[in-house]
Design a protein that fits this description.
610 residues; alpha/beta; 8-stranded antiparallel sheet; 7-stranded antiparallel sheet; 35% helix; binds 5-amino-5-deoxy-1-O-phosphono-D-mannitol
Length: 610
């Protein structure tokens, strides 16, 4: 997904902007560019391809300015190309614009501008912004007024960065729906779409909210609200450091993040339990009466967060006895929703900036639902617009393939489920304390599960040339399989699907041939025999069968070609461990195939377009 960075101050803008863009590479992109102003001249360099392509050109023809903006583009309108890359400039080469998001009404604006004589060079939606600013500059007193006029014409999502020869000592940054932060320096200031881009320079930041504009000069930052009134904003201090956002000795972010799970899960769980085994969920302020008022729960999310929601549904329904529906966020607003002020909507999003999830949030709010979000990013859009926020404390997740965000989301659901069960009096206080005691043991069990890596490397070797693979399981294990399949396909590019084990025989079993890998997740005692029968069905048809289980391997040795054993925990918590071998299998298969594990093709870390 696109990344933006801007700088104004005493350093060379090129150095700071390029450094920041490098830190955003993990978001996924296909081209990049930079624009600076120096001695009254605006200079532009932009190219299709990796940042190294841009760097090479900058070595030959460096930028000297101390004010600049830069962009990594992930194509939405118009294919990746030099001309479609950002920044975009006006015809007189006096204004440059970078943009994250999508301008929904760009076609009508483009037509208007073409009718007025503007010539478009790119196929992007963004180019309308720069021409619109140019148009209003002709009648405005300054660049800020022109930007305000232009922005008032836009519909859609945008984080914009603008520099202009007319006012070379300022950068203007505007936000609607796409993430934007402003970093505070000493004799220098910054803006970016994401914290790692500027963390090397400052920890003090402002989160820009929707419809706000920042006018950034080297010694000053002024914020305006949507009515153009100057507003005062609260600063935030970032507590995590660059080390947490870099590889720390591991070859890839994904492997580092898999190995960080014991700590991430411990951070998420342990500080929320007091010495008497009570959960302290002080960010969730739903009281006793409100809980009794809730008829049902909707969990809404995308991708891995959606898969975590499937586990959340199972846990909440089984322990708290509340009906739960899980919806894919991009479908939610087009489905028939049965939601009202008696519905609790739980939004799950690692980044807190996923466009589909934000759109679902808007709709749920409009219908009067109480919104509880589970997110990993403090101050993110999802968090700021929720009634209650449960922060997973996983630290920054950089690899596109989500791992520690998923396990900490499960930890969040376990805690929410247990607390709801207590509030709804579905479990006695005694049971509650016992379950919390079991929860406290999870980080240690996650640590022990990391020992499965060796076995997973062997399995990766055996499946690396497969054309397709399958995960099967029942109940919770089926949901873990969904996440296992997503991990394997997104980074190994092996076509992988996950099925409820009993459903295979209704069609999919036709795809099983000699050596097709079938990975069965087997942790649920009550479903054990049934799933074992389904494993036999695929084994009989030549499948290479692997079981991920918490059972004694001697008891099931005859049922599979390979077995990965994870520690035994309370049945309801088993998924948080069973998923770890699935993560390792995906990671090592991808490595063995020589893929770019942290930046898989066609994918972006944070999907901020619908
Ligand atoms: O930031 P979010 O949790 O809202 O992101 C949702 C999905 O885009 C994300 O989980 C995606 O599926 C992962 N990259 C998969 O590993």
């Amino acid at each position: 997904m696109c990344g933006i960075v801007g700088y104004i101050g005493w350093q060379k803008a090129q150095d700071v902007v390029m450094n920041g863009l490098e830190k955003l590479e993990y978001r996924g992109y296909d081209s990049s560019g930079i624009a600076t102003i120096f001695n009254g001249q605006l200079k532009l360099s932009k190219y299709k391809g990796r940042l190294s392509v841009l760097s090479k050109h900058l070595e030959e023809d460096p930028h000297q300015g101390h004010v600049g903006i830069g962009h990594t583009r992930w194509a939405t309108h118009g294919q990746p190309s030099d001309v479609n890359s950002h920044p975009h400039i006006n015809e007189s080469n006096s204004v440059a614009v970078i943009h994250n998001g999508i301008i929904e009404n760009y076609r009508e604006l483009k037509k208007e501008l073409i009718d007025e004589g503007y010539i478009f060079k790119s196929q992007t939606d963004t180019e309308v912004v720069v021409h619109m600013i140019d148009k209003y500059l002709k009648t405005s007193v300054d660049i800020l007024s022109a930007v305000n006029m232009a922005v008032s014409r836009l519909r859609g999502a945008y984080a914009l960065g603008i520099i202009s020869k007319a006012d070379p000592d300022k950068i203007i940054a505007v936000r609607k729906e796409s993430p934007l932060i402003v970093g505070i320096g000493d004799g220098e200031n910054f803006f970016a779409s994401d914290i790692p881009a500027i963390l090397e320079y400052t920890r003090e930041i402002y989160y820009v909210d929707n419809d706000e504009t920042a006018v950034i000069s080297k010694d000053d930052i002024i914020f305006y609200d949507k009515d153009k009134n100057i507003i005062k904003k609260d600063k935030f201090t970032i507590t995590w450091d660059m080390d947490a956002a870099t590889k720390g000795g591991y070859p890839h972010f994904m492997l580092k993040e898999i190995n960080e799970q014991p700590k991430a899960v411990a951070d998420t769980i342990l500080r929320r339990i007091d010495e008497n085994n009570n959960l302290i969920l002080d960010d969730i302020r739903i009281d006793d009466t409100q809980i009794q008022n809730i008829n049902d729960i909707y969990i809404v999310a995308c991708g891995t967060a959606y898969n975590a929601g499937l586990i959340g549904k199972y846990v909440i329904e089984n322990i708290a006895n509340i009906r739960v529906r899980v919806d894919i966020a991009s479908e939610f607003r087009y489905n028939k929703q049965f939601i009202n002020d008696k519905t609790l909507v739980i939004l799950v999003s690692q980044s807190g900036e996923t466009a589909d999830t934000l759109a679902a949030q808007k709709l749920a709010k409009a219908k009067g639902c109480r919104i509880l979000s589970i997110t990993n990013v403090v101050g993110s859009s999802v968090a700021r617009n929720s009634d209650d926020v449960f922060y997973t404390l996983a630290g920054p997740e950089i690899a596109v393939a989500s791992t520690k965000a998923y396990t900490t989301m499960l930890a969040a659901f376990y805690m929410i489920g247990i607390e709801l069960a207590k509030l709804k009096r579905e479990i006695s206080i005694n049971e509650y304390h016992k379950i919390v005691e079991l929860l406290k043991k999870l980080p240690q069990k996650v640590e022990e599960t990391l020992k499965t890596e060796e076995k997973c490397i062997e399995i990766a070797e055996k499946i690396k040339n497969a054309k397709s693979a399958f995960y099967i399981g029942r109940g919770l294990d089926d949901s873990v399989g969904k996440e296992g399949a997503l991990k394997l396909k997104e980074i190994s590019y092996i076509y992988t699907e996950s099925f409820a084990a009993g459903e295979l025989k209704h069609g999919t079993i036709a795809l099983i041939e000699e050596n097709t890998p079938v990975i069965a997740v087997l942790t649920q005692d009550k479903l054990l025999e049934k799933t074992i029968s389904n494993i036999q069905e695929v084994k009989a048809r030549g499948a290479y069968t692997i079981i991920i289980t918490d059972k004694d391997s001697n008891d099931i040795a005859n049922y599979a070609d390979d077995i990965v054993v994870v520690p035994k925990v309370y049945d309801l918590f088993s998924s948080i461990l069973a998923v770890i071998p699935a993560q390792f299998i995906a990671y090592h298969t991808s490595i063995k195939k020589g893929n770019d594990v942290d930046k898989p093709r066609n994918l972006a870390k944070s999907v901020t377009v619908e």
